[in-house]
Amino acid sequence: MPNMTYTSVLWTLLRFAHWFRIYHHLKWLQRTQWKSPAELRELQEKRLRAIIFHAYYNIPFYHKKFKDAGMTPNDIKTIEDLKKFL
Q1: b or e along 58-67 (b: 16 or more beta carbons within 10 Å of the residue's beta carbon)?
Q2: For residue 23, what pLDDT band results from cuts at 50, 70 and 90?
Q3: φ, ψ at 70 (rounded to 5°)
Q4: CA distance 50 to 48
Q5: How much is the pLDDT for 11?
Q6: Contact at 8 Å (CB) between 82 and 76?
Q7: 82 lies in the same domain as 44
Q8: Do 62 and 26 sit in the same domain of this protein?
Q9: Residue range of the domain that includes 14
């Protein structure tokens, strides 16, 4: 019986964590839905830079791709800069 209690508590916590994550994303979408195109572009570029830095420093395949192209993550600041990489 204690094992069932542990399992049910664990599943409850996991469901709560899942719904909390969804709630967090919903709140973010509600805050950003009325932003201007320029503000949305700025948010996109900020997230793009975060993804580029993560890929460069954590994924050997992309680190090599950057190195082969003679670029670093600092070279990509806007969406248009990606064209240089392709």
Answers
A1: eeeebeeebe
A2: confident
A3: 70, 35
A4: 5
A5: 76
A6: yes
A7: yes
A8: no
A9: 1-34
Q: Is the pLDDT of residue 43 over 70?
A: yes
- Does residue 66 share a domain with residue 29? no
Mean pLDDT of 49-73: 93
Instruction: Give the amino acid at 53.
Output: F
SS3 at position 17:
helix
The yes-or-no verdict on residue 2 having pLDDT over 60 is no
- The one-letter code for the residue type at 56 is Y
| Contacts by 73-77, CB closer than 8 A, 24 or more apart | 73/49, 76/48, 76/49, 76/52, 77/45, 77/49
Q: Which amino acid, one-letter code, is at 31?
A: R
d(C-alpha 77, C-alpha 11), whole Å: 42
Based on the fold, state whether residues 80 and 63 are members of the same structural domain.
yes
State the amino acid at position 78 in one-letter form: T
Percent of all residues in the chain with a pLDDT value above 90, rounded to a whole number: 40
pTM over 0.85: no
